[in-house]
Amino acid sequence: MADAVGASVGEVTRVDDLGEIERASSPRWVWWRTAEIYPALLEAGVRVQRCHDLAAVQSLLRTYEGEPFVPPQSALSEPAGSGAVQISLFTDDEAASKPSRRLGAGPDGDPAMYGTYFGLAELRRHYAEQLAHIARVRKAHPGFGLLVAAESAAGLAAVEMGRAGLPWSTEIHDRVLTDLLGPRPQHHGRPRKLQVLAEEVSALLAPEKTGPALQVNPDSPADVLKAFKRQGVTLTSTRAWELKEVEHPAVAPLLRYKELARLHVAHGWGWQDQWVRQGRFHAEYVPGGVVTGRWATSGGGALQIPKVMRACVVADPGYVLVAADAGQLEPRILAALSADRGMIAATADADMYTALARQALGRPEARNEAKIGLLAAMYGARANTPAMVALKRRFPQALDLLERAARTGENGGIVRSVLGRTCPPPEPTWQEVPPEQALARSRARGRFTRNFVIQASAADWANALVAGLRRRLIALSDRAELVFFQHDEVLVHAPAMLAEAVVAAIADSGAEATALVLGDRGVRIPLAAAPITSYADKN
DNA sequence: GGGGACAGCCAC
DNA sequence: AAACGTGGCTGTCCCC
Questions:
Q1: Nearest to A343 by CA among A382, A401, A386, A384
Q2: Tell me, in Å, how far CA of A114 is from C1' of B5?
Q3: pLDDT tens digits, residue range A65-120?
Q4: What is the rounded (10 degree) CA torsion for A199, A200, A205, A209?
Q5: Which of these, A181, A179, A231, A177, lies nearest to A202 by C-alpha position?
C-alpha cells in the first residue's frame, strides 16, 4: 500500500499504453471498481498485478466507522448528470509517469472500454482521503493495510476467475442429469423420472382420485401439508428431516422427488444453457459481498454446487486440477484469536477434532461429539451438551472469546475480524419491541457477533491466501489459472507438467497467509494440495 | 406479469 | 438429532 498519492498521476487512455506501463513497472492502479474496469482490460490482453479498488475499500472503511454494511458494488455512488463516458484510473507509481492521456473516448479509442464516469480529480481526492483514513485506522488495527490490499487483490482474482471459468463437461453433466432424471424434456415440464415420482406421491397421498392431473403438487408445501393431514399425519413443515421421521408410504418417493427436483431446477439443463459456454462455467464472483468478508456470487450459484455435480468439473486434456482446502479452518482461527495454548497445541494435529476429543474428553473416538460441540459453540447453539462443558473446562480462553463476542453483540456493540473488518451496528431501533422480542433479538445479535469474529477472520485468511496464490501463479505461467474459490478451498487448472509447481505455490501461499494474518502464534493451518483430473476425486 | 414474502435446500 | 452462523437460488402464493 502506497502512503501517498504519486506525483505521476496521469489519465491513461489507450489500453496498449496501459499494458505498456503495466509491463514496465507493474504499478498499483487506482480505480473505482475492479468489476467494471478490469474485464475490458483482460479482454484487451492486459493483466494487472496490483490495484486499489476504491469502492471495496470504501465499504471496509464505512463499516469500520460504524456505518451499515454496504456491499462493495454500490459503496461509491456515481455523481449524477455526469456527461462523457470515460474511464478514470491512474497509477500511484512515479516510474509510470506519462503525459496525460484519456482512455476510451477518443476517435481511436477502444470500443470495448467502458466504465465509471468520474473525473480524475475526484478519483485522486477519494484516493488521498482513503490513504489518510487507512493510516489512521492502522494505528489501532495494524492489519488493516493488509486487509485493504487483500480485498483489492481478491477483486482482481474474482474477475479473472469469472473470465477463465470453471472447466465444466457438459457431456458428463448431461449424463448425470439423464441418469438421475431421465432424458431432457423437449419443452418445459418435468423430466420423466421426476414426473413418475410426482405421480407416485400424488397417488399415495390422494388415492381416492385418479387421473392424469396431479392431486398433490409436491412442489407446494401447503399442498403436501394438507394431503398428509388428510392421511392423519400432522406436520409442522415439509422439511426433509421432519418427513424422515414419518412412517407413510409417500415419504420415500417425496424425499427422492425433492432431492432430484432441486438438482433439476437449480443445476439442470436450464442452468447449463445459461451459465456454461464452451466447456466453462462462468460465474460472477463478488468478493466482500457477504457482511463477514466472504465472497458472494451474483448468478450461477457457484458457491453452492452440489457435491454430486462435482463430477462435471474435469481438467482439459494435458491439464490437471490442483485442489486444496484448509481443513477445519474456523476452529484453527479460534485457536489463533484466543491464543488458547491448549487449542493451539491441538492445531498441530491434522485432524484437530480428534485432538480436541482426546484433550477435553479423554477419548479420541469422541471426535464427532467434540466437533459438534465446538461448532455449536461457534454458532451459538442454545443447548449445552456434555462435550461443550468439557471443551469449556479444557479450553477456557477459546470458549471465553466466543462468550465475550456474544455479550458484546447482545449489548448492541460491534466486533471486528483479526485484520479489522468490522460488523455493522444493529438498527438504531432494534430494541424498540416488546421485552420478550427484545431478548430474542439480543440473543440473535449475540449469535451473529459470536460467529462474525470467527467467520470474518477466516475470510481474512482466505483472501490473503487468494492474493498470494494469484501472485505466485502469475509468476509461474499464464496457463496456471485459479478457477474456483469457495470460502476455504481453491482449484487451479494448469498444464500437467506444472502440477508440482502449483502444489508448491498453494502450500507457500497458505503458509504466507497464516504468517501474515495470524502472526507467529504457533497455529497450524494445513492446506494439502493435490493434482486431480476430476473435482469428484478430491479427498 | 412483476415484486416480495416465505419455504426449502444447496454450499461453507 | 434437529435448530445454531453466513449466503444464493427457485418454487409457490398473494398482492398490485
A1: A401
A2: 37
A3: 999 998 887 555 443 333 333 445 665 543 333 333 333 332 233 322 333 345 67
A4: 60
A5: A231
As a whole number of Å, the end-to-end CA separation of chain A is 38
Answer for the pair A35, A159: CB distance below 8 angstroms, yes or no: yes
Residue A259 Cβ under 7 A from any strand B atom: yes
Which grid cell is A43? 479482454
Q: In the complex, which nucleotide's C1' lies nearest to the CA atom of residue A274? A: C9
Question: What is the rounded distance in angstroms from the CA atom of residue A89 to the CA atom of residue A151?
Answer: 18
For residues A164 and A481, the answer to whether their CB atoms sit within 8 Å is yes
Nearest residue for B9, CA–C1': A262
Contact, A329 CB vs strand C, < 7 Å = no
Cell numbers found for residue A508: 507457500
Nearest nucleotide by C1' from A301 CA? Answer: C8
Q: Is the CB of A306 under 7 A from strand B?
A: yes
Classified as helix, coil or strand, A248 is coil
> Å between A258 CA and C14 C1'?
24
User: pLDDT tens-digit profile of A119-178?
Assistant: 677 888 899 999 999 999 999 999 999 999 999 999 999 999 999 999 999 999 999 999
Question: For the packed helices A396-410 and A367-379, what is the interaxial angle rounded to 10 degrees?
Answer: 30
Cell of A162: 469469472
Nucleotides of B under 7 A from a protein CB: 7-12
In whole angstroms, B11 C1' to A368 CA is 21
Strand B: which residues 210-249 of A lie within 7 A (CB)? 221, 225, 237-241
Read off the pLDDT band of A12 (50, 70, 90).
low
- Does A271 contact strand C, using a CB cutoff of 7 Å? yes
Which residues neighbour A207 within 8 Å (Cβ) at sequence distance 6 or greater? none
Are the beta carbons of A524 and A357 closer than 8 angstroms? no
Query: In degrees rounded to 5, what are phi and psi of residue A462?
Result: -65, -40
